[in-house]
Amino acid sequence: MKILCSISHVPDTTTRIQFTPDGSALDRNGVTFIVNPYDDFILARAAELKEKNPSEVHVTVLCVGKNGSSSTDSVDANLRKALALGLDEAVRIDAEPVDAFSVASLIADYAKDKAFDLLFFGKESIDYNGSQVPGMVAALLDLPFISYATSIELENGAARLTREITGGKEIIECPLPLVLSAQKGLAEWRIPNVRGIMQAKSKPLHVLAPTGASPRVRTWKHELPPAKGSFKKVEPDRLQDLVQELANKGLI
């Protein structure tokens, strides 16, 4: 079985966001980049599948991105961290991830002739929260797509998946190959051990030139939200005052 885990290289969740003076991009100075947290679930599940059948399961980790100028902005370093979980090889497509379609196109172009049985994605990246890339990859490869999965079990060339829906859970069965986006619950996060970290240093990491489609969407400008203005506090037992304030402002 061949598995592809596509991960994103994103700013740490504690980052204080700043933009370049012209607003065209994130100011990456002093920012620590990490593996997208939702992608940690797919890496952990892939590692579990690898452990169950080490000789039969091969896991490739892929990221679209260019290495930054500092050690805290290294896509390769984050790929090595993923490999330290016991996965087999890593691929970096050397292109700036400009929009969802171009990223999906790059991934699909890489995967189209590799005969992957499972293509794993986190449900979204925490920097843009688009949730677009997995579905686009599935469409470009003409594969079934299951979103927001919280569990997956494999048997007889098919997958049995669970995802949460309003009021309950949905159980889905789907033949392989398939594309899956995952959320919390797919697996427990893992921390690489020392042995895994040392082994990851010698595992193959391939850097490929981009071959997919050009971006279709470009960001014109980034802006921080406006500073909070003045406010009036209304006590919970004075709801009539709140109603009066909203009425005075013409909001009700």
Give an account of the 3D structure.
It is a single chain. The chain has 252 residues and is of the alpha/beta class. It has a single domain, classed as Rossmann fold. It has six helices and eleven strands. The strands form two sheets. Strands 9-8-7-10-6-1-4-5-11 form a nine-stranded mixed sheet, with helices on both faces. A two-stranded antiparallel sheet has the order 2-3. Strand 7 and strand 8 form a beta hairpin. The protein is globular, with a radius of gyration of 21 Å.
Poorly predicted ranges (pLDDT <50, ≥5 residues)?
Answer: none
Q: CATH homologous superfamily?
A: HUPs
Principal-axes geometry comes out as globular
Query: Kindly, what is the distance between the CA atoms of the first and last residues, rounded to a whole number of angstroms?
Result: 59 Å
Q: CATH class, anyone?
A: Alpha Beta
Strand order of the largest sheet: 9-8-7-10-6-1-4-5-11
Arithmetic mean of pLDDT: 93
Class derived from helix and strand content: alpha/beta
Number of helices: 6
Main sheet overview: 9 strands, mixed
How helix-rich are the residues, as a percent range? 25-40%
What's the architecture, going by CATH? 3-Layer(aba) Sandwich
User: How many domains in all?
Assistant: 1
CATH topology: Rossmann fold
Percent of residues in beta strands: 25-35%
Give the helices and strands as they follow along the chain. Answer: EEEHEHEHEHEEEEHEH
- Return Rg in Å: 21 Å
> What's the β-strand tally?
11
